[in-house]
Amino acid sequence: MRGPTAMLAQAPLSLALARPVIFDVSSTAAAANASTPFDGFVSYSIEFSSFPDYAGNKSHPNTFSYALLANLGAVSGPGGAPLPCVRVGGNTQDYALFDPDLAVALNGTYDPARSPDYPTTLAVGPSFFESYAAWPAGVRFTHGFNLGGNHAPAARRRDTLLRTAALVCRALGGGGGAALHALEYGNEPDLFATSAQGPVRPLTYDEPAYVAEWLNGTRAIRDVFAEHCPDLLRDGELPFVAPSFAGTRNHLRAPQAWAAGLDADRNIKYFSSHNYISGADTPGVTLQGTLMNHTRTQLSVAAHAAEYASLGALSHPLPPLILGETNSLYNQGRRGLSDTFGAALWGVDFALAAAAAGVRRVYFHTGVGYRYAAWQPGAVRPPYYGHVAVAAFLGAPAGAASDAAGERAAVSVAALEPRRRPADPHADAAYAAYAPGGALARLLVLNLRAYNYTLGGGGGPELNPEPRPQRTYRFRVSAFPPPAPRAAAVRRLRANGSDAVAGLSWDRWSYESGRPRRLADATLRELVPVGPGGVLELRVPDSEAAVLDFLR
């Protein structure tokens, strides 16, 4: 096969603006104060009631879903890297009650007044847990247990907890391909007293009451595992994620829960919080103002970083911070916003802003029929392309070391701040990635100005007659250590516009079939030279992202 041809040029688009947006870049991770995420940084949270559809079972595994997970591992480093982690949870984990006589994996009843998107009465049978064995080895799972109870009698809830703990133990500790990563007891308990789907606790429910319930339940789970699969315990304890609150300013607060003794057993492996930028039905939500808005993304991430930092006086060392459930707009997203290329660009910006702020892993939530899903059980959606781009940008070199928790470190990440003019702080975003040794490895730039491919952005047949602008970005790297790179290779995340729902590509690869397929123009390799003083320039159209990989 003929090798790629180098192309020292820019893609021919229109209206290149003359004045460049300038970013100053530190050449080492230490100088940039970069943060280091875990491997599998882009991971997934699958709605509990959707898990059998996404994973399949032993006789009918969902190979499409597995291929999409494997793609992220493949782009994350030489020879592949660990696959994304998968959390099985969400609102329906706290609706699920066990029925030992149920012949199918689950039986759900929808109540549109509570939610049109998932069952709010849910029975699960023994075969539900077979889905953990559907995929080949390599997927690390977090299972979510029911704490909320869904108004079931206390005896029924306790029976569900103990019986499902034994089944999870066998499914994830039986020596098969599935691997236990962590356990979760309760989804978003900070909303138990105020949930729009119906409160399951009184308004008097406070942090000490929650902690007492959590400790009682997690100790019961530990005792079941100690009996049925003791090899999964470490120093007599199981790994949990907690508190899995919906946000930082709800009915319960994480610092108060921590002070009440949430980690009394020292079994919280990850401090988990949830994040959504806004709501699907919130007035005024738009693609440009809400999702493709770098400032809003930064503020959203900063709230979690500040909350986590406030725990430092209460516990040392703190378990690593993860976003155990996240996506664009809560209530499963909005069509025309959460399922567009603009949402893919938001996903890139959000994930890297989180990584730069010290979040170690993010779990993008998904479910059958959810508008913000990265994929449906047989179809790729636009947000997935953003996840591929992030995984590629964070790819770790071969031989990267693991930390004490067994997590292989990826590259470290720093957010870059543009000079004020002509930069738009809401629309111009860039990040630097540093190799484990500390040297600058690559850059990523996002032009978050919305450009509609269709007239008015409504997705209709009429196309936008306005030409698509492009911006020039100049990076000035301080003191490259030798050998200084001579050029940078360019990989682009692109589509016809921010409103596009098809025709997306990453680095001239399409993933529509579930597996990567090279596009027709893939023989051209785009390069930009690194000039004197470590300066390089790149043009990026509105509603596009690009990665620059330094060549030495």
Describe the structure in your own words.
With 552 residues, the protein is α/β, with parallel strands linked by helices. It is 22% helix and 26% strand. Residues 1-13 have low confidence and may be disordered. It has helices at 29-32, 51-55, 63-74, 154-173, 207-228, 254-259, 287-291, 294-310, 341-356, 382-393; strands at residues 5-7, 21-26, 42-47, 85-89, 96-98, 106-109, 121-124, 140-145, 179-185, 240-245, 268-279, 321-330, 361-366, 375-376, 379-380, 412-416, 428-434, 440-447, 470-478, 487-494, 505-506, 509-510, 517-518, 524-529, 535-541, 544-551.
Summarize the structure.
The chain has 552 residues and is an alpha/beta fold.
SSE layout:
Elements: E1 5-7, E2 21-26, H1 29-32, E3 42-47, H2 51-55, H3 63-74, E4 85-89, E5 96-98, E6 106-109, E7 121-124, E8 140-145, H4 154-173, E9 179-185, H5 207-228, E10 240-245, H6 254-259, E11 268-279, H7 287-291, H8 294-310, E12 321-330, H9 341-356, E13 361-366, E14 375-376, E15 379-380, H10 382-393, E16 412-416, E17 428-434, E18 440-447, E19 470-478, E20 487-494, E21 505-506, E22 509-510, E23 517-518, E24 524-529, E25 535-541, E26 544-551
Parallel strand pairs: 1-24, 2-19, 3-4, 3-13, 4-8, 5-7, 8-9, 9-10, 10-11, 11-12, 12-13
Antiparallel strand pairs: 6-7, 14-15, 16-17, 17-18, 18-26, 19-25, 20-21, 20-24, 20-26, 22-23
Helix pairs in contact: 4-5, 8-9, 9-10
